[in-house]
Amino acid sequence: MLLPMENVRVRFEPSPTGSVHIGTARAALFNWLYARKTGGRFILRIADTDRERNTQSALDEILRVLSWLGLDWDEGPEAGGEFGPYFQSQRGDIYREYLQKLEDAGRAYKKDGAIFFKLEGERYTEYDEYHKAEIEKVRTEPVVIEDLIRGKVTRREERDFVLVRSNGDPGFHFVNVVDDISMGITHVLRGEDHLSNTSKHLELYKAFGTPPPIFAHMPMILKDPKIGKGKMSKRDKGALIEEYQQRHFLSQAVVNFIALLGWSPKDGKEVLTIEELLERFEIKDIQKAGARFDDKKMSHLNFEYMKVLPICEYEKYARQALTSSNLIDENVDGEHLRGVLELCREKIDSFENLPAFSAYFFSEDYTINEKAFKKVWRREGARERLSEITPRLSDLDEWTESAIEYAFQQLANETGEKPFAWYPVVRFAVSGTNSGPDFLPMLKIMGKELVIRRINDRLASIN
RNA sequence: GUCCCGUUCGUCUAGUCAGGCCUAGGACACAGGGUUUUCAUCCCUGCAACAGGGGUUCGAAUCCCCUACGGGACGCCA
Questions:
Q1: How far does chain A reach from its first CA to its final CA, in angstroms?
Q2: Residue at minimal CA–C1' distance from B73?
Q3: How far is the CA of A219 from the C1' of B70 (A)?
Q4: How far is the CA of A324 from the C1' of B38 (A)?
Q5: A172 sits within 7 Å of strand B by its CB
Q6: Which pLDDT value is given to residue A2?
Q7: C-beta separation of A243 from A65 below 8 A
Q8: How far is CA A401 from CA A343, A445, A447, in A?
Q9: Does A262 contact strand B, using a CB cutoff of 7 Å?
Q10: A51: which residues sit within 8 A by CB, 6+ positions away?
């Protein structure tokens, strides 16, 4: 446990310019975990200084995603707080005040209509291979970043950078530092892509004469090697949090999954509720190397949570998934639905594939599996086997598992075979596939009428 | 191109800070077997890694150096 007197204040600073990325969500989660763990404050600050690109829907999404993940904030939009406003677009007065300090100290100057920060050191010009131009540089003293994850990182900033853009809007580095100072931020936990920005930020802290917060730079989330190289981008499958909602993933599973991207608990436990994450989370245990995204791991974790989901919750998610695939509507027979779910439960690792797995229970519009067609139906004697069993099923007075089983058993006894010999062909006839839930319970749930009808249809088809 | 960060099974990682307990542990994936007389569950088994090279040391995955490779930054985006 950490010392309470530390008075931790951490912030999450998303910009409302697009969908919430998995890396963004992880930054939110790790900051939240650290705040909750230390009894500190978790602050939500909206980085909306780029007027051109901000959208209301992006802001709405950020708030929606945070609540979906269960990350509540102590200060910020909707929550308020004494360090507001929490929208950078509304903090103009504060930025002006801080800019004045830099101007007074002779550390700001105008150029091309923008205001630049002036580094200290000898100036010279040099041809820059990257910019393909002569560029003014400054021989500055190196700064040392004390990073909780990486140790000391030494870097030198060698070019003046923009404080205020020519359109009058303050720039990222400036507002970032000013806000962290004025909001009393103690720890900055962010992505490694900011590591090279940190030297700019440290120069600013020096210029303001304010001690910097403690930094910790998390590793990047990289693409699955099968998809490509480099860091995960919005376009990659699995990169957007909203996508998981749409695919009916459980939020606890998503939280668990992103927590394991670049971090792991000392005890090796992998399936962790948010409370268990809280008990174990330590910034020091965050990995240095980039973490590769693995869709399979995501599904596996989702499955773990599906297994322990209370049945009524399970039904809720299942209804959503099945409704959005137009397989059921609110008039569905609840008992039938629950019967089907009981069969599918513990068979599928995501509600996303529940519709495909169970379509034939609800609709005539289900796919015939090609492989099963060839393997089961095209096999010698398949049609005969189906014909043999059909009258025996039709004749059943009771449609129970044991009655159905008995029908198969009797036929098997007469021919000296196992009932197993008829299962696949019947399964194929009623479901169009050779895999699925437990066979007997499945027939029972489908009901005699449907089973017989599908079998007859199959028999009647010329294929 | 310059600067910064990194490198343990296919993937996530434990172990690295305090060198011997590591013939390198777990999980996902994959493969094989078993159970459930189907099956995408479940159980068992297997496969599989310290990037390479130099040092230091009685001893190195662990410390140092070099090389290679990967990642990031270099915006009047954040």
A1: 69
A2: A196
A3: 13
A4: 29
A5: yes
A6: 43
A7: no
A8: 13, 9, 11
A9: yes
A10: A89, A169
Is the C-beta of residue A267 closer than 7 Å to nucleic acid chain B? no
Higher-pLDDT residue of A207 and A233 is: A207
Q: Is the dihedral of CA A137, A143, A146, A149 positive or negative?
A: positive
Residue A461 has which token pair? Answer: 């088809």
Is the bond preceding residue A85 a cis peptide, omega within 30 degrees?
yes
Angle between helices A448-460 and A423-431 (to 10 degrees): 90
Mean pLDDT along residues A425-451: 89
> pLDDT value at position A6?
63
A247-260 pLDDT, tens digit per residue, is 999 999 999 999 99
Give the model's confidence band at A418: pLDDT under 50 very low, under 70 low, under 90 confident, else very high: confident
Mean pLDDT of A153-167: 94
A314 CA to B55 C1' distance (Å): 60
Q: A133-139 and A9-12 as β-strands: parallel, antiparallel, unpaired?
A: unpaired
**Rounded-to-integer distance, Cα A417 and Cα A413, Å:** 6
> For residues A41 and A9, what is the distance between their CA atoms, to the nearest angstrom?
5
Look up residue A106 and give its DSSP letter. Answer: T
List the one residue out of A335, A318, A315 whose CA is nearest residue A327: A318
* Contact between the CB of A50 and strand B at under 7 Å: yes
Q: pLDDT tens digit string along A171-221?
A: 999 999 999 999 999 999 999 999 999 999 999 999 999 999 999 999 999
Which residue has 């014909």 as its token pair?
Answer: A387
**Strand B bases with any atom < 7 A from protein Cβ:** 1-8, 10-15, 25-29, 36-42, 70-78
Question: Chain A, 270-329: which CBs lie within 7 Å of strand B?
Answer: 270, 285, 287-292, 294, 296-297, 299-300, 303
Which residues, in sequence order, are CB contacts of A84 under 8 Å at separation 6+? A75
